[in-house]
Amino acid sequence: MVRIDNDNVTSSLRSAMAKRARWRYGVMLSNSFLVFGVYYFMPIPVSLQNEMTNSADTYIGSNSTKNQINCTVCLGLGEVRYNLLFSTTRWASVAVCLPSGLVIDRLGNGCSALLFTTLVFLGSILFTVGATSHPPVTTPMYILMVIGYGFMAFGDVSLRLSQGRIISHYFQEETLTAVAFSFLAHFGDGLTFFTTPLTANALGIQYAIWLGSLLCGISVLSAVLLALLLHLQPHIIEEKTEDKNTLTLAVVRALPGSFWLFTLALAFTIVSWLVKHANLPEYLELRHGYTMSEASHISAIAGCLAFITPFLCWIVKKIDCDGITYSFFQLLLLSFYFVLGFCPRVNIIFVSVVDGIGIFMATAISWQLIVVLCPPSSIGILSGFVYMARNTMPALTFIASGYILKSGKVTNIDDALGRYQNFFFMLISLSIIGVIFGILMNAADIREGGSLNSRIRRWKNSDMESLGLISMGDLSNTYCGSKDTNEGTNELPD
């Protein structure tokens, strides 16, 4: 007979669990930094908005300095071509959403992450070559910039889908926490508004843009590390073979109605923020009299708040009503657009902090809702469909924004601010539609069982159990009472 040493078995299990936790933290960190480069690179045109839009003979009188020359190296894109640059990325995102979901489900997490980070790195190089060739930008170089910036879609969509798939497979018990930590690399969005203007002023615009390409290369290294972790530890984090099944019509039919309403709510919510963020520095310069560097620093506040996302997600997890909390942050963003556009006396720093909290929490909770609503075996292609709808609206709205904000070479402040008021009217209208779809999503979810609002579901279940117990008690009393009565009537006197 073989005797088993329970102490040794327990020690081995504890050692394996500790090793598993250690590697899971490595996966979480590598997964987070997949998007660091793309989120540093994508705001570079925003942080250099004057250099991008203006020509050498263009000036906009600000509140503090009249006849201000707005750029030292002027690329001369203008408002229309500037916004078309962002629109192109959104159209590219629409095109790659569903194919990316299929590729991720087929190739797996490690290979797909390495593929998409490499494409992002290539796109950053193409954009940099086109932007730094010889200002002002010629049509061929502008086309090269558009192609390179379009490759950013593989980071803004494909890598985000890959991150969501990793979270749904390896952190099923703590999805919201994993989503929150995946947002730490979004700090690159805020960092670029500080480093890019400083680098451009100190060394030149070409070095500022090439720095973004270098950081996209860091994301490639992060993808390599992630692939190694997933390959070297198959017994710890192993993909199931059924996870590579294709999406079927039966799966689509089984999706709850709240999934489709959430898709529309997300599309109309994120569009306003993306379009606002791309045109914010110039608006701050006109409305508040900041220099372009100061406006870029204020625009960076929202991105820097990525660090507090895990703490806020911990609070949301305690609330345990993700759908209703999402609608709350939708309303918060709606109030932000109203204050930013029509209440200039409100402190702009406070407004920017509210903006950052609102957008990061709305985005984090949206990923949590995707994980809850989609089956893990098809989350790649389903989340791709959600992002296709999400990016269709910005693709159209960026085009409209370019023509709303279009100006000549010499711009009067009042005329420019009037165009921005029309711009904010458009953003508020789109946000209101998103809030309506969010409310309908919660109503449908509560009626379907409350998968997005677990606390309400538990309240309903506890109420039903209480009613059941009360009903059983009433039946028991009725039965006992009738039995006692019968016994009393059947009892014969002595």
How does this structure look, described?
It is globular and about 65 Å long. A two-stranded parallel ribbon has the order 1-2. The protein has 494 residues and is mainly α. It is 78% helix and 1% strand. The protein has one domain (35-231, 257-473): Growth Hormone, Chain: A (Up-down Bundle). It contains 20 helices and two strands.
Descriptive keywords:
two-stranded parallel sheet; Growth Hormone, Chain: A; 494 residues; mainly alpha; 20 helices; disordered C terminus
What's the layout of helices and strands?
Elements: H1 6-32, H2 36-41, H3 44-47, H4 49-53, E1 59-60, H5 78-107, H6 109-131, H7 139-150, H8 153-170, H9 175-182, H10 187-202, H11 205-232, H12 249-254, H13 257-288, H14 292-304, H15 309-319, H16 322-342, H17 348-373, H18 379-404, E2 410-411, H19 413-448, H20 454-490
Parallel strand pairs: 1-2
Q: What is the CATH architecture assignment?
A: Up-down Bundle
**SSE order, one letter for each helix or strand:** HHHHEHHHHHHHHHHHHHHEHH
What is the CATH C-level name?
A: Mainly Alpha
Radius of gyration: 27 Å
Here the CATH topology equals: Growth Hormone, Chain: A
The order of strands across the largest sheet is 1-2
If you average the pLDDT, what whole number results? 78
Helix count? 20
Task: Estimate nothing, just give the exact number of structural domains.
Answer: 1
Largest beta-sheet details: 2 strands, parallel
β-strand number: 2
Q: What helical percentage do the residues reach?
A: over 70%
Q: What does the oligomeric state look like here?
A: single chain
Q: Find the CATH superfamily.
A: MFS general substrate transporter like domains
List segments where confidence is low: pLDDT < 50 over at least 5 consecutive residues: 1-10, 61-69, 234-245, 487-494
Based on secondary structure, the structural category is mainly alpha
